[in-house]
Each structure stands twice: as C-alpha cells, then as structure tokens.
Amino acid sequence: MARNDWTPEEINAAVAAYFKMLHMLEQGELFVKADLIRELLASALQNRNKGAVEYRFGNISAVLQERQLPWLKGYAPYSQYPESLVPAVMRAAEGLVPLRPTSDPVELDKNTKRAQALGFKKPKGQETPEPTSMTSTVFKRDPLVRAYVLEEANGKCELCGHPAPFEDKDGDPFLEVHHVKTLAEGGADTVENAVALCPNCHRSLHLAKDREQRLAHLYAKVSRLEKHA
C-alpha cells in the first residue's frame, strides 16, 4: 500500500497512538516509542511497517505545527500528508492549548516548559507585542526595616554567603530584601521576617525544586529570623 492510501481505521489508530504519547509526555509519564509502534504493527496496522508508521507520525506533527499546536519532538514534521488525515488530527487535538503569547506569568512559564519538552519550529516572535493591563496589590514597606537588614548582611547574601554580584548606581552592594513569609501570605514587615539575598538565591526561594531545604538552611543560618505561623 502507498503512503496516502491508508484506511480511516488505520489513520485513526495512528492518530490515537500519537496523541497517547503526546499526553503522556505532557503529564511527565515515561514511555518507550518503540513499544507503542510494535503494538500498532501487531494490531491495527498489521499491513504497515515501522518506517510507514513513523512517517505518518511526522505527518501528524506537520498538521499540528501548521496550526501552532505542540507536537512530538521525536517526529519531525512531514508536510506531504493526505487531507483525510487533518480531520482525525483536529478531533484528537480538541482541547490542546496552543503555544501562544500570554501576559500571565504562570501560563508563560508552563507553556515555555511545554515547548521545551515538545516540538516547535523557530518562532517569528512579535515585532509589536500586544500590551495588556493588569491589576496587582503592592504593600507599603518600612525603609528602616530594609536598611537594617541590608546593614546586617554587610554586602553578602545571607543564604549563600557570597558577596553581592555587583554594585548599584550609587556604588552600594546590590542585594534584594526578601520576606521569608511573604507579605501576600500575611507575613510581617519586620527584621525577624526579612533577609538580604543575591538575585539568584532570591529566585531560588520562590522557584527552586528544593526551596524548602533552602528555607530550612536560611532559618538555621540567620539567627534573627523567627518562624511565623
């Protein structure tokens, strides 16, 4: 059989297997592509071979790529696909979130990780990004608390102990004052709840996989800190 004479049943089986892998990858589940292909060749695609199945997977990648949808990085897009493939792919792709620009930092981070794990072509980017208006809550902070914490740090990060990475425009060591229990979580703006950190350590306390261990180390290292319920 030629590449373009697949039956609807064969196309549906290939699409189902492709999207099974795609969803498993998005969920962080482990799988072996060769095992799934063997299952297909032993069941719904007995009249095909491994090369034909992988080529069809590349066709599915092309359909998704052309619509700015994520696709499996392991199967490079092959654009010469039969039109009969498109409806089956788009039915399976219903609910698949496009990798499009967003002003939501959480969504941006999530979709960046999706793009890294999945496939995408070199983007054109945006010559004139669309602006959006956002509302945020900002807390009034005591400059005396901030000054005291910076003086206590004496130009060194209170987590890693390294000197500030650079001097600011006034020639002072650049450190960021961080509330250990954040103000948004009800934390106090006091010296017992604030530390001076280098930018790297500051971000790590918000985002690192081992942030709880880092936080425990911080409490053990900085004696003035007090844990707040």
Topology as H/E string? HHHHHHEEHH
Regions with little confidence, pLDDT below 50 for 5+ residues = none
Strand content: under 5%
Number of domains: 2
- Class computed from helices, strands and strand pairing: mainly alpha
Give the overall silhouette: elongated
Write down the Rg. 26 Å
User: Strand arrangement, largest sheet?
Assistant: 1-2
How many β-strand stretches? 2
**Overall average pLDDT:** 89
Question: Span between N and C termini?
Answer: 69 Å
Helix run count: 8
What composes the largest sheet? 2 strands, antiparallel
Helix content: 40-55%
Summarize the structure.
The chain is mainly alpha-helical and 229 residues long.
Furnish the topology, listing elements before pairings.
Blueprint: H1 8-26, H2 33-41, H3 50-66, H4 85-92, H5 105-117, H6 143-153, E1 176-179, E2 194-197, H7 199-207, H8 211-221
Antiparallel strand pairs: 1-2
Question: What can you tell me about this protein's structure?
Answer:
- With 229 residues, the protein is mainly alpha-helical.
- It has two domains: 104 residues, no CATH class; 79 residues, DNA Binding (I), subunit A (Orthogonal Bundle).
- 42% of the residues lie in helices and 3% in strands.
- Helix 1 packs parallel to helix 4.
Highlighted features:
229 residues, mainly alpha, DNA Binding (I), subunit A, 2 domains, 2 strands, 42% helix
